[in-house]
Design a protein that fits this description.
Chain lengths: 111, 114
């Protein structure tokens, strides 16, 4: 599975857009890019998944450049409740594939 | 939205005892997983399960651990002869057969070994 690198922590304020970038230089052709969110004492929660270009859902957008060696999770207008750890994972999601979690990015949203 | 449910939410057990952690995956999912997270550390993969067989397991998943799908809805993790270092959050996850579908996690069981 491809190794990912993302910032350890980020700070933001309510109402701002937050962009968290993840690098995955050795991503394989079949790999998907998946982001999870985790609150304290809860299980990781799926946010968004993509393969190339841009994916948007009701909570986030995922931007993937043509070379797919990095990706950016964009959270529009964050609120205090978005304070959490965000994990970028690369691999063949679903099926047999185990998920390898890194340390994630700890996002703190301030009033 | 369907979700993965886990019971109990908190389990306290004496060292050396056996525990069974229970999970009800999303009903149409075919792949099941257990992960654990020691306090303050990363989420770690333990085992994946499909068609009543273990598909893959990590080095953590030794002979002390076993998994079972005893009926059509439950998926269990048994830990025999628990040790202090087994104290952690244990998360169950499930995914559909379709290969590009993500894993969905339950909210975990906090296991405390005394």
């Amino acid at each position: 599975l491809a190794k990912t690198t993302q910032p350890i922590s980020m700070d933001s304020y309510e109402g701002q857009e937050v962009n968290i970038t993840c690098s995955h230089n050795n991503i394989a052709t079949n790999d998907y890019i998946t982001w999870y969110q985790q609150f304290p004492s809860q299980g990781p929660r799926f946010i968004i998944q993509g393969y190339k270009t841009k994916v948007t859902n009701e909570v986030a957008s995922l931007f993937i450049p043509a070379d797919r060696k990095s990706s950016t999770l964009s959270l529009p207008r964050v609120s205090l409740s978005d304070t959490a750890v965000y994990y970028c994972l690369v691999g063949f999601s679903g099926g047999y594939n185990k998920l390898i979690f890194g340390a994630g990015t700890r996002l703190a949203v301030h009033p | 939205e369907p979700e993965v449910t886990q019971t109990p939410s908190h389990q306290v057990t004496q060292m050396g005892q056996e525990v069974i952690l229970r999970c009800v995956p999303i009903s149409n999912h075919l792949y099941f997983y257990w992960y654990r997270q020691i306090l303050g550390q990363k989420v770690e993969f333990l085992v994946s399960f499909y068609n009543n067989e273990i598909s893959e397991k990590s080095e953590i998943f030794d002979d002390q651990f076993s998994v079972e799908r005893p009926d059509g809805s439950n998926f269990t993790l048994k830990i025999r002869s628990t040790k202090l270092e087994d104290s952690a959050m244990y998360f169950c996850a499930s995914s559909e057969f379709i290969t590009d579908q993500p894993q969905h996690f339950g909210d975990g069981t906090r296991l405390s070994i005394l």
